[in-house]
Amino acid sequence: MAPGPAIVAAVPDLISISEAVELVLARVRPLAAERVPLDAAAGRYVAEAAHSLVDLPPFPASAMDGFALRSEDTPGRLPIAGRIVTGTPSPDVLAAGQTIGISTGGVVPDGADAVVPVELVTEEGGTLVVPKAVVGGDNIRPRGGDLAAGDVVVAPGTRLGPAHVGALAAGGVPEVAVGRRPRVCVLVTGSELQAPGTPLGPGQIYDANGSILAAQLSAAGAEVERLPPVRDDEEATFAAIKRGLEADVLITTGGVSVGVHDLVRSAEAQLGVEEIFWRVAMRPGKPIAFGVRGSTLVFGLPGNPVSSLVGFELFVRPALLALQGATNPHPEFLPGRLVRGSKRVAERDSLIRARRTVRDGEVLLEPLSGQDSHMIARAATADALVLVPRGDGVLEAGSAVEFLPL
Fold first, then answer.
1. Counting C-beta atoms within 10 Å of the first and last residue's C-beta, which end of the chain has fewer, N or C?
2. In this structure, are residues 264 and 255 in contact, taking their beta carbons and an 8 Å threshold?
3. Whole-number Å distance between alpha carbons of 267 and 57
4. Residues in contact with 292: Cβ distance below 8 Å, sequence separation at least 6, in sequence order
5. Vertex 212: Cα angle to 406 and 26 (nearest 5)
6. Model pTM greater than 0.85?
């Protein structure tokens, strides 16, 4: 299909950030599950409940280096019947009036109901002197005390961290069903863009958005394909977007505003993309677009690097997490307090870059100087996006706010 003239449409009202997030998530359908070896599962989202194959621990185990015995035989002097080393079987039954040495993790023999730590007793030849009474159950890890065979180790929607992987391994689970990683195409647009490492001509700048998005996408669990940057040309833009629509997600930067060279939305319309929204009441990043074609999600991020970075965190990352099956993919805003006042914008919520510190258990947020949307070098020192609600005047220092960690 050949490119046609740009589509001219009435400018819609701005929608709120929360409305835009819900519109995005309403169009997401989790990707199919795939089974992966446990060693490759860290960071993935569980698609099906994983169950322990064994009791954990699978036998009564000693929690201490010490001596297994019957509590009813204490205090007293008990003959030592032998030693149990971790990883070896124990005697069938510990006879009344006897004790047996045992290592941490060793199998507690039948008949024993307690383990006394080695530092609380004395060995005299082949006899153990137990000076005080021992309570039944002391220092024994009961069989199945952590998990019983068949119990759920991790539930669907869980992002697997080191402890989850360790629990699955302990439960004997060799592989786990996880959501497939989304395949994402990244397309940066603009005749002025050059790859880092090449000389800049008059009016040219280096492409930062492609690198920013590739890093954000990798951190969000996506498989990334970076298409070659496309110049401000209808045919080239059309061809690049057509290719990008083969992925699970297409992300473009630039070309979604109202300038003469903003060609992206027109090309997407010709290719059958249903535009769900365009323009959000936020600063930076107002001219952000979102649409769908079939199961492909299409995000049009602004060309300014900070606007692109913010738009990704608010809208693209939640979509990627939802595609992988996350239980709660919404942006996770946390409470904090503003150290320095920030000017409000009358009709748009602002996301200002800030540095955070913790004092007396409270997160303090210091806005950075230089909040313009092209200032990516200044933004690189930020570790938080502070939400400044729309309004008049200044949000005073000391105000309670919400922030999104970076």
1. N
2. yes
3. 60
4. 27, 273, 274, 276, 298
5. 70
6. yes
